[in-house]
Design goal:
The structure is a single chain. The protein is an alpha+beta fold. 57% of the residues lie in helices and 16% in strands. The strands form four sheets. The chain has a five-stranded antiparallel sheet with strand order 9-8-7-6-10. A three-stranded antiparallel sheet has the order 3-4-5. Helix 5 packs antiparallel against helix 7.
């Protein structure tokens, strides 16, 4: 029974694949009647079309472009009348005859006229008219007997059992895949963590991204499998019965183009997601092997990997989308060679008209390759600066201190200052009063910096012992003491704020005040005698 069932399924699949392109003579879908071979030279040109029985192609006919529709309708009407009389007659035998009328073979079925075979029909098989008529008569004899047998109660019951088994297989397969989907969805909620990933946040992040991309690919493939199970199962079941086989052919004709385009889109989407997972996997392998990551450059490498990964994924997406569009055009039967030739000419014209875009792309590639800055860096370009939020081959977007998003074309970036590349520095200038003991003040500033460097909370952010450079300048505020504190990237502002707070507390504890701007005026005796000549400005007596 299993072998018989598999043989039936395979035969149905072969029948579906071998169905000709034309869809005329399908009673349920008259709007699909389009000639299978049409010449646009003139309205009198010869076209061909297929005659169908229960959705199966019987034979081809030919006629002029103006007459093909009328001839199709006449033959179809005659065939329907013959079928009605033959299928529902339990005693009548099938008798297909060929008679000659006006030297042309005419086909009769049970003494009912079906059609006249002309020379145009014979040219379709490159034989004479009589041979063509004999071939058509043989096909009719076989197919009509098969069609009547399929309408018998025993045959319908047998086909119904096969349809029931196939429906049961579809339901069980669908439930199995659904349970697998639920299990995969449940597993995706549990985060992946390990000691190594905890020590290397960038590795953990890449592993999570890779897992999410693979989970998305699995999800789409399972959905495609579900659709394939129900679609192919329904298609095969419709082909089991003579009453629904025409609907099967109609669905095939209607859904052919959407299915092709849908498959191309789905494959393109899966390929993009799978490429994302491969990019993350490749980067994780390099980092885990120690080729790209060490304790000194982990923070910087995290920014660089994020930038490189984002740009690589964008380029991969564009490539796969271009390939997907080409395959979609091929699946629709469109010749892409002229399109590619036209696209090359358009590309040359666009490249000449958009040289600034090419400069942006080249400069953006060099920025990423040379690691001038990356996502998460704080940069200054000319008069603007801020946190890099977006970086691609076309432009750089930074967010300044006031929250404004500034877009800079990459070709306009000539000189860039990176404030967070690999390490940063808190540059502090401490004013000390001229009346203070400078040695004690320097010792106090150094002690505060040393205590902060030993604090566990700030020790990870300060990567070197603070440097007290000494008196850097004499100004109207007092003696200016220069202090350098080397920090992790983007931590210089936090360290500087905390150091100023601690230094103010230390100054208050020993009675050292922060000086304010001062100005001294010196007046000699000659100037004082000149002022005495003007009593009006003299100081009043007490």
């Amino acid at each position: 029974m299993r072998l018989k069932f598999l043989a039936i399924v395979v035969s149905m699949a072969v029948t579906v694949v071998s169905v000709p392109k034309a869809t005329a003579q399908i009673p349920l879908l008259p709007y699909l009647q389009t000639p299978s071979s049409v010449s646009n030279a003139s309205e009198n040109s010869t076209v061909s079309e297929w005659i169908y029985l229960d959705g199966r192609p019987l034979f081809q006919i030919a006629a002029s472009k103006n007459d093909i529709s009328e001839r199709l309708q006449n033959i179809h009407r005659n065939l329907q009348q013959i079928n009605r009389d033959y299928f529902y007659s339990s005693a009548q035998e099938l008798n297909v005859q060929i008679r000659k009328v006006n030297d042309l073979p005419v086909i009769y079925v049970n003494d009912k006229y079906l059609m006249t075979v002309n020379s145009e029909d014979a040219r379709l098989r490159q034989v004479d008219s009589l041979t063509m008529a004999n071939q058509i008569a043989g096909d009719l004899q076989k197919e009509l007997e098969t069609a009547k047998e399929e309408r018998q109660t025993s045959s319908l019951l047998n086909q119904g059992r096969i349809a029931g088994i196939l429906a049961l297989v579809m339901i069980l397969s669908s439930l199995l895949i659904y349970s697998w989907q639920c299990r995969s969805r449940k597993d995706s909620i549990e985060p992946i963590s390990s000691d190594e990933d905890t020590e290397k946040p960038i590795t953990n992040q890449l592993n999570q991204q890779q897992y999410q991309h693979l989970a998305e690919v699995k999800k789409r493939l399972l959905q495609l499998t579900q659709t394939g199970i129900w679609g192919s199962g329904t298609f095969i079941i419709l082909g089991l019965f003579p009453y629904t086989r025409a609907l099967q052919m109609g669905l095939l004709a209607v859904a052919k183009i959407p299915v092709k385009v849908g498959i191309v889109l789905l494959v393109t989407y899966v390929a993009i997601r799978f490429s994302y997972a491969l990019i993350d996997k490749f980067t994780t392998t390099l980092i885990s092997g120690g080729a790209l990551l060490n304790s000194e450059t982990s923070e910087r490498m995290q920014l660089r990997v994020s930038t490189f990964s984002g740009v690589t994924k964008s380029i991969t997406t564009l490539i796969w989308m271009g390939i997907g569009i080409l395959f979609a055009l091929i699946s629709l039967g469109i010749d892409i060679v002229p399109l590619l030739a036209g696209a090359s000419l358009i590309g040359v014209a666009v490249s000449l008209a958009s040289q600034s875009l090419i400069k942006d792309a080249i400069n953006g590639f060099l920025i990423i390759l040379e690691d001038q800055y990356a996502l998460g860096d704080v940069i200054t370009v000319g008069d603007v600066g801020g946190l890099v939020e977006n970086l691609n081959l076309r432009m750089t977007q930074v967010r300044d201190a006031e929250g404004r998003l500034i877009t800079i074309p990459n070709s306009e970036i000539k000189v860039v200052a990176n404030l967070s590349s690999r390490w940063s520095r808190a540059d502090l200038t401490i004013p000390i009063s001229y009346q203070a003991n400078i040695d004690e003040a320097l010792k106090l500033i150094e002690n505060v910096a040393w205590d902060m460097n030993q604090d566990p909370l700030w020790k990870k952010q300060i990567i070197e012992k603070p440097s007290i450079l000494g008196i850097d300048n004499f100004s109207d505020r007092g003696m200016m003491i220069r202090v350098w504190i080397k920090t992790q990237p983007l931590k210089q502002w936090d360290v500087a704020r905390e150091y100023r707070r601690r230094l103010k507390v230390a100054f208050d504890s020993v009675g050292v005040s922060i000086p304010v701007p001062q100005q001294a005026i010196w007046i000699n005796d000659a100037q004082l005698s000149n002022y005495s000549e003007f009593p009006s400005i003299a100081a009043p007596e007490s």
